[in-house]
Amino acid sequence: MKEQYEKQTNLVNKYHFAILEGVLVLQFFPLIKKAYGNEDAIEKIKQFLDKKGKQEDDEIKDKRDIIDILLEHELDEAQECKDNNREEKNCSKEAHDDLDEEDDLDEDETHYNPCSAQPSGRYTVRVKDIAKQMHRRAKAQMRKNCVVDGDNKLEGDIFKVTFRNGGDGKGLDKDICNIDTKYSNDSRSHGEPCTGKDNGGERFKIGTRWLYFKENQKLYKEFYLPPRREHMCTSNLENLDVGSVTENGKAIHSLLGDVLLTAKMDAAEIIKRYAKQNGLSQKSDSIDAKHKESICRAVRYSFADIGDIIRGRDLWDEDKGAQEMEKHLQKIFQKIKEQIPEIQGKYNTDGKHKQLRADWWEANRRQVWQAIQCSLNTLKSSTADCKYNSGNIVPLDDYIPQRLRWMTEWAEWYCKVQKEAYEELVRDCGECKKNADSCTKGTPHCTSCDNQCKLYVTKIKKWEEQWNEIFYKYLILYRNAEITSPHGTNAYGGDVGDKDKPVAAFLQKLQEANKSSASKRSKRSIPRDTTSPYSSAA
Q1: What does the CA dihedral 379, 384, 385, 390 come to, rounded to 10 degrees?
Q2: Closest by alpha carbon to 473, among 498, 494, 505, 500?
Q3: What are the sequence ranges of the domains in the chain?
Q4: Strand, coil or helix: 99
Q5: Cα 195 from chain centroid?
Q6: CA angle at residue 137 from 107 to 301, to 5 degrees?
Q7: Which positions fall inside the Duffy-antigen binding domain (predicted)?
Q8: Which sign, positive or negative, has the C-alpha torsion 359, 365, 366, 371?
Q9: What is the distance of C-alpha 151 from the center of its chain?
Q10: In this structure, are residues 374 and 264 in contact, taking their beta carbons and an 8 Å threshold?
């Protein structure tokens, strides 16, 4: 049907798809409304249709109509129903009305940014559409590789296994929020995911320096490491007893237990340590909304970093703990491949099992986010980045490349430091400003102001040097993506390391979107914009 509409010559140019969408709406929307029943879901669908009706064909991502999206949603809902009703198979439409985030009807998402030039301090997230595309492809690939006769062969079920530390999945009463250190295959006789992490108490203290790692300059491996990632609660994954994970052919289930434990406990620690290290009340009701947003962003970044660890994409791979974790995961996924005959022909033997790991993550990421929600509920917030603690929607941060996420996170940290330093400058120079005539060199107020000015410059200079390093590496990748976007990541040849190929692919998609947008401008308009969402710290 889509192909036939594309060929019609008597339709308004560039609106073939939009017209088809309108026809589908007239025919099917009453049926959709009757089937869904939920007023919120129907309102979202109406907003989506209104927005698409105003767009030209080349503005519409992938030319997916409302039927495509609803069919995909029904497939996801059916799979989630199976997940949540493994034994009784009693599926209820009312229990799963939420759309996945990649199909949340193209709502714009905003974040608070203290460095923004906009009066509201907010900016629109412009990479979300690319993350949606990446996730959609990953989900399709996972289903192709490991869903057999409706059964996802990689989906874990922690209620089916007994763990090394004595926990029996049956004892969780079908609630992953009950998971604790008993439900782990940690080889240590004592300790838990956060043992040995952030002993200096600086993980979330504003101004904590980011460690710089420089490797092969040609492969762009240089990066600044977020203290949040440096001190993540992954000690149990670093000390996994591989034999316990893989015994009895239940590796996909047993591994999930430790990943859920890491996710849940790291989220809890983020909430606790952010408040403590920034002098905030330990009572969530007393934490300012902007701090809650920062906490929730940190939780989402850690969720995405867990995904990169599982998929073998984590940039921080030189640390002893990270290396141990990677070795364990490679062995475990080798066993997973051996234990599931139906999937063996779908994956190569690269030793690292990258595609198998990516598919396992995609199959289980919803459960990982649910474990995080167990801790997010204590924050008692349902706004901005915390909105996910009240629904089934899984964020897409894990489909934004780690280097780009860390750039954004660095910018957020810099803005907090700059804001704090500027407030101190205003405080110490306030008297001088009030009494300019008497504030001369050598007077107490002038000396205090002068000292604070020098301190401000010193603080900002350090962060400026970091930004120059970060932006230089990004700029090389971005410019190459601009040149090679029509040809995919293969056009890079050997210029990009394996762990930056997701960045290259992401930026190429971003370039394609930019070029599509630029093609609509008048030829007499201003020159093309070569910047991107990552081109400045603000």
Answers
A1: 60
A2: 500
A3: 2-107, 151-197+232-399, 406-518
A4: coil
A5: 25
A6: 60
A7: 223-405
A8: positive
A9: 27
A10: yes
Structure tokens at 336: 């997973």
- Could you read off the pLDDT of 99-137 as tens digits, one per residue? 455 454 444 445 555 555 555 554 434 688 899 989 999
List b or e across 80-102, with b for residues whose CB sees 16 or more CB atoms inside 10 angstroms.
bbebeeeeeeeeeeeebebbbbb
DSSP E strands: which ranges in 84-188?
110-112, 122-124, 147-148, 151-152
Rounded Cα gap, residues 338 and 331, in angstroms:
11
Collapsing DSSP states into helix, strand and coil, what is residue 240?
Answer: strand
Confidence of residue 68 (pLDDT cuts 50, 70, 90): low
Taking the C-alpha atoms of residue 131 and residue 108, their distance in angstroms, rounded to an integer, is: 13
Q: What is the mean pLDDT of residues 232-255?
A: 96
- Tell me how far apart the alpha carbons of residues 193 and 254 are, in angstroms, rounded to a whole number: 16
Radius of gyration in angstroms for the set of CA atoms belonging to the chain, rounded to a whole number: 25
Token duo for residue 431: 């008297």
- Give CA torsion, residues 474, 312, 366, 237, to 10 deg: -120
Smallest Cα–Cα separation from 32: which of 20, 45, 19, 21? 45
Burial class (CB in 10 A: 0-12, 13-18, 19+), 123: middle
Predicted local distance difference test score (pLDDT) of residue 340: 95
Are the CB atoms for 445 and 471 separated by under 8 Å?
Answer: no
Buried/exposed code over 22-34 (b: 16+ C-beta within 10 A; e: otherwise): eebbeeeeeebee
Amino acid at 397: D
Encoded amino acid at 516, one letter: S
Q: Amino acid identity of 497?
A: G
Centroid of chain to Cα 39: 29
Residue 446 token pair: 């002038």
Q: Which CATH superfamily is domain 151-197+232-399 in?
A: Duffy-antigen binding domain (1.20.1310.20)
Q: DSSP characters for 410-446?
A: HHHHHHHHHHHHHHHHHHHHHHHHHTTTT--TTSHHH
Q: Are 49 and 21 within 8 A, CB to CB?
A: yes
What pTM was computed for the model? Answer: 0.78
E strand spans, 108-238: 110-112, 122-124, 147-148, 151-152, 211-213, 223-225
Q: How many Å apart are CA 441 and CA 450, to the nearest integer?
A: 9
Asked if 371 and 176 touch (Cβ cutoff 8 Å), the reply is yes
